[in-house]
Amino acid sequence: MSPYPLETITPGGGMMLEQQQQQLSQHHQQPGHISLSVLIDMIVQRTYHELTILAELLPRKTDMERKVEIFNFSSRTRMLFIRLLALVKWASSASKVDKCNNIMMFLEKQSNLFLDTADNLARMARETLVRATLPNFHLPAAAEILTTGGYTRLPRCIKERIIPPPPISLQEKKMTLLKLNQVIEQRLVSSAIPLRMRNLKVADGTVTFTVKNEFEAQLTLLGDSAAEPWRLLSLEMLVEDRETGQGKSLIHSLQVNYVQNLVQSRLVAKDTAKPLYDLYNVLHGMAQLLQLEVLYNQTARLCTERLGDYIRVEEYVLGRALTISYWRELSNRDPNSDQGYRLSVQVDPQDTAKPLIVLHTPSLTSNEAETAEKSIRTEHLSVESLLVHTIYVRTRKRLAELKIELQKRLGLGDVEPMLHGSPAVLAIPILQPCLKAEQLLISVDTHTGIFLAHVPQYLNNPYSPLIQNSLNGDKIQLETQVSELRYWITARRIEKTIQQLPATPYEQLPLMYDLRNHPLSKMDKHKMFIRLHKQPSSIIVVDYKYKPGRECEIQYRYYYLLTKPCSIEDEPEDETIVKEIPRVYMKALNMIEFDSFLITHGTTTKVDNQELSEKIIGKRKVGGKVEVPIKRTKFPAYFLSDLAHVVSYADERIPFIALEAQLTAKDIMHSGVCVESTAVGLYLTIVKFPSLPEIKDFEFLEFSKLLLSATIRRKGSSWALEWVFLGSPLNIASQKGRNPIYSYYELETVAECEKTVKSILDDWSSMVRLHILVKKFQRYLESGVTLLGSRILIKQYNYKSLALEYGPNSMYSVTVSWKKTEEKFGLVFGTSGQGGSTNPHVLFINQHEIELNKHNNLALTCQVLLETLAPCKSIARLPTTIFRGMSSTNKNAIHQTFTILPQSTTHVKIFFYGKYCMDIHMRAEGIVSIRDGAYSKFDQVKVLEELQPIPGFKAFLSKYADEAAMSRRASQTEDDNPPSPFTIEDPMKPDSKFTAPGSTSSLNPVSPHSGFLQSPPSLRQPSPAVPSPANPAGSPFSSVASPLGGSPRSKPSPRYAGTSPKPVGASSSSYLAAQSRTLPPRLWAGAIPTVLPAKAFDDICKSTSVASLAGGSNAVICPLHRFLGCVFMRRQLQHIIKSEEFLTQISTNEQGVIAFRVESSLMCKVSINADNCFQSLHLKIMPDDQNYWQAENTLVLQKFFDEKVVAPPYRPNALLGFCRLLNSPTEALKNLIQLMRFEVHPEQIAQNNLKWSISLCLTIPPVAPNVFPVGQAGFISNKEKFLIFMHLTRVNTPPGQDPISVVAPIVYNTAANNTSLASLQRELNGPALNAVQQHLIRWNNSNMNPGRCSILPAIHDLLMNLSLPNESGFTMGQGPPPPGMVPSAMGQPPSGMGQPPSGLGQPPTGMGQATSGPGMGQPPSSMGQPPVSMGQTSSGMGYSQREP
Predict the structure, then answer these.
(1) What integer pLDDT is reported at residue 1359 of this predicted model?
(2) What is the rounded distance in angstroms from the CA atom of residue 575 to the CA atom of residue 562?
(3) CB of 627 within 8 A of CB of 618?
(4) How confident is the model at residue 521, as a pLDDT?
(5) 1319, 977, 1030, 926: which is closest to 1152 by C-alpha?
(6) How far is CA 795 from CA 724, 792, 801, in A?
(7) Helices (DSSP H) in 1254-1350: which residue ranges?
């Protein structure tokens, strides 16, 4: 190892660590050393290599040999790795040895440097410094130079021999050169000069000879003697290769010197008579040699890089000739060609002084040869240009010969092909007229010399390759192939002509016809089939062929072919026998030929034939005015105007002809097809319609007199029928005089044209029937019997429909029309003006249609509409919202709030949650009678199956009943609170008939055979009165003094198709049986109808707020909804008391009070509040220990129950959750009551400076649907823990920003007194919940009072100090609302537990959205990621997912 250099040694004698490391790394890279990692890698690679070889060789050896080889390999490898192991162990201490070695080497090098320094100093003192002395100074020279600045003592020979004499003056130079020019000019005059060297220039004592594209020589004379020879001053060869020379000179400078010496020797030779001729011959020969060499190199480069075998150098003689062959493929095809096509660039054999000449084989004319040789007479010497010019001349010559030949063979006549372009192209117009793009273009391939043929417009046509082969072959089939190309282009012209027309061209169709007699069999193969889109059975056959003697012109003939679908198995003799297989063929029937002249010059076309004078000056009219001459439209050559006209004519005429035939077949008198007066189209007028069998003759005749005309025209792809009537039977001012009405029908095919005629007859029949109905209605209005005319406004009558308006300010409308498909009158209810979005009579549309078609009395229908408008408006107010989770047994069951089932136009049944039924009869003057529909009308002590009586229904209605109508005293035996005929086991069965919204339809009448949904006919109910002359409309209502309150039950209507309200999931047997259950033998008050005036009925159905009443909720819903909801919740509370073990029912004598005890020493009484019309429930809590419970806490709990639990939408799961909450430990319950205080008294949130408001969720929100069933009871508990959901909403949100909200599942461990968040798994892992979890963890760690219940302190601290990440832009809680509750605007603060939406009492706008349950307030918008399972809480409690 070499020692370290001195530069690396610090002044202190040490070495820097970094430099040591660099030296060590360099040391490892020195020869004789190897890195340990490299050594290990080599050993591993060697082992792998040997193992691979063993794997390949061992299968071919015996078992013993394989064992031996494996043992040897194992032993050898083991020893190798043992050595490697020893080396690795040694290497752990090798660094110390290496350091010692480095130190020794450094000291040795330092010692050597000291020795070398001492030796060098001794040698310098003994040898070098002994002879180191200075010379004697030359003082005189130094003094002279310093004083005078010069030195005069140099030798004179230096001046004489080295310093040049002074030059001559400029004037002397000019005079000398001028005299030399005169000498040169005198010598040129007396010397013989070659003809091509006479381009010379004398200047500056020299003469310059220039031969274009060859050389340039500069000569001079050294004296004026006649014997003085010429002197060559310079020489430049002008031959260059601009394509492959790359800007370099073609000859070397040594070669130039040699040529100069050669030329100079010829000039000074004494035996040379003409020295300038010798100069020219030498340089001219040199230039021609260079030119041939350049052409040869270019040819070789072309063959190598681009042209390949297309050209070849046949012969190259250096400096003499270059022969190139081209079009070799054409030469091989021509057996008469011996040498083929060649060109030879050579020296002129007659006169070598001339430039290179080009000889062509076969020979060209002098003009053609001169054109070809222009390429080598320029400065740009190019063999490619020579070939291009030569091939161009050859191409034009071949195409000119072909032009003359084709002119005769193709019979072009006056049409002359054109030869133009470069490369030359022969354009042959094979059709007349012919576009340039349709011409047959023939050119010559510049590489091969063969003919190329194509049509620019149709590059892929099948005949161009055939024509090309014929042109390069024997040309026997050329005429036939060109003729087929003409026909092929003609077919394409036909396709282009009709591409914008309603037709499709085909060259072939699957036609079946008689090959012996049918006209198709006699036609040529050149024809096209055009199938009309609107008439698929109509085919236009275009037959085309060229005119005799004028083969470039095509003549056309047009045929109309009628077909019909058929199959190959059909019997040709008997058309009635049809096989039931796909009919993919078309049977050709009749075929007639069109007269194209008559079609194009018929009644609907403008004749363009004019006299010569009219063409020049125009047609003169009476009065002296002159019409502008008609300009004949010029169409492009590919557009066949006659064909387009024929197709349009057929497309327009064929439907009219088929329609005319069908009208005649239906005994409809018509005028036939006529042409419009302006010749813009066709029309057909119906003169008389046939009589209708079910219409009386005088009524039919009366309506026929009103019809002035019925004209059929075609509008695009449909028929337009214009009905023109005279006046109107309703005396409408706007409809006096001619009233045109338009009907549109689909344009059918010829075979199905009967459908159009049937539709016309149906429209005629519907207008006749509607006219008869309107006429009767008009006679009733004119009779003046009632004020119906002033209450009904006729909006429009257009003979197809009658539009009436009724109601206050005519805000509702009904349209009467005849339904052709169902053959009955139909009604369409709507609104106009301020009528709102829906018409309340839409619910009864089917019943009104049945009554109208039964009596054919429009006045009666209008009277019913007017009398039932107010009750129907009230019924339409009832909400029909769908709810989920209304049953504690079936978690996924859905129930509709109010289900409306019309029974007739004046009778309707309304169900609440599918359990309570109200039977409502609408009577005259808006009076409504209501009874409990759960009771049978046959026996009022029996209850229909699946229904529950409504306790207190009579008392509720009596609050709104008319005193005069209620003057009759109720029987002393009546009871308004009947016992329930139900068993308490399952009050809401999953298969209840009215639980699914899809099971009922408020728009369908009820079948009289559908069980309890149909009120059975009663002998005490008179049917509607029959119209009499004194009262034409009749009365749709029965007497008010009826024994049952005038229930207007009419006869059962016949079963209406598709209107049975049988619910989904109900069995047929139970549904049809209408089983009843017996009550104790008493007359129950709810079974007797209660008469209400229209205003009272509207009051109980109109959404109102009862916040002013004690214990009421501020929800805006109708009183009927509140009352039934309270009844429903009372019933559910009874079920909860019996099903939950921690609740015990207590008997009480108080009427309508439910008393029960909770295990936590609380006795509760729930009663319905009669002070606000039985519209709310009230909870009264009586603790066993009055001292332990503060009165303030019980009041908060009671208010929470009244306002948040038994509030719309009245969910039993909220009630269940509240009962479970009452059973929580006493201290925990007191803490929860304090949290309830913030909810029932929102003003305390601001008083306590809280950042968040809180709402206890008594039903499970959609925070984790896969873990917690949405809508179920929101309080889950066991012996050690309970889970409750809390909805937190940010208060004091800036205006215009949605509030931030979050739903937190809180777990309280009663044993450990720990309040925490439920386990944050995948579905509950969100930024907001993470913040809540971290906040609770920090609070638990810093809890200073562990003996106190931690719920209230932890949640209070959370409400006061919780901060979410990025709170300014973070919105939590925006997600799907909890089922069973319609949320208000997303992000609004919660308005209380169970608070319904503001529009809950309004008719629903959709039937698919579930609403949230009570106890939720405003649902959260986003709940993080939903979990798969709840997992373990922080306290060890686990929750698993329940089956819904």
Answers:
(1) 92
(2) 16
(3) yes
(4) 87
(5) 977
(6) 20, 9, 11
(7) 1327-1341
Question: Secondary structure of 503-561 in the HEC alphabet?
Answer: EEEECCCCEECCCCCCHHHHCCCCEEEEEECCCCCEEEEEEEEEECCEEEEEEEEEEEE
What is the per-residue pLDDT for 906? Answer: 94
- Diameter of the chain by CA atoms? 175
CA distance 988 to 998: 18
Q: State the Cα–Cα distance between residues 1260 and 1412, nearest whole angstrom.
A: 9
Report the C-alpha gap between 615 and 594 in whole angstroms.
30
Q: Beta partners for 882? A: 896
Name the 3-class secondary structure at 1381: coil
* Residue 1404 · residue 903 · CB < 8 Å: no
- pLDDT at residue 1355 in the model: 93
Query: CA 369, CA 362: separation in Å to the nearest integer?
Result: 11
What is the per-residue burial (b if ≥16 Cβ within 10 Å, else e) of 901-911?
Answer: bbbbbbbbbbb
Residues 692, 697, 698, 703, Cα dihedral to 10°: 20
Three-class SS of 1254-1279 = EEEECECCCCCCCCCCCCCECEEECC
Which 8-state DSSP code applies to residue 245?
A: S
Do 1144 and 1156 contact (CB within 8 A), yes or no? yes
Cis peptide leading into residue 1005 (ω within 30°): no
Residue pair 930/1085 in contact (Cβ under 8 Å)? The answer is no
The size of the chain, in residues, is 1444
Which residue's structure tokens are 């009215």?
A: 994
- Kindly tell me the number of DSSP H helices and DSSP E strands found in the chain: 33, 47
All residue ranges of the chain with pLDDT < 50 are 1-24, 26-29, 607-617, 619-622, 625-626, 630, 966, 968-973, 981-1077, 1079, 1081-1083, 1108-1113, 1369-1444
- Identify the pLDDT of residue 12: 40
User: Shortest CA distance to 344 belongs to which of 308, 319, 313, 303?
Assistant: 313
CA distances from 582 to 401, 566, 570, 578, 973 (A): 59, 8, 11, 11, 77
Structure tokens given for 928: 């409504």
Q: What's the pLDDT score for residue 1376?
A: 38
Contacts 24+ apart (CB under 8 A), 799-803: 799/723, 799/725, 799/739, 799/741, 799/767, 799/770, 799/771, 800/741, 800/743, 800/763, 800/766, 800/767, 800/770, 801/770, 802/770, 802/773, 802/774, 802/858
Cα–Cα distance for residue pair 896/1061, rounded to 1 Å = 14
Cβ(468)–Cβ(495) under 8 Å?
Answer: no
Q: Are 1285 and 1270 in contact (CB under 8 A)?
A: no
Give 540's strand partners.
530, 560
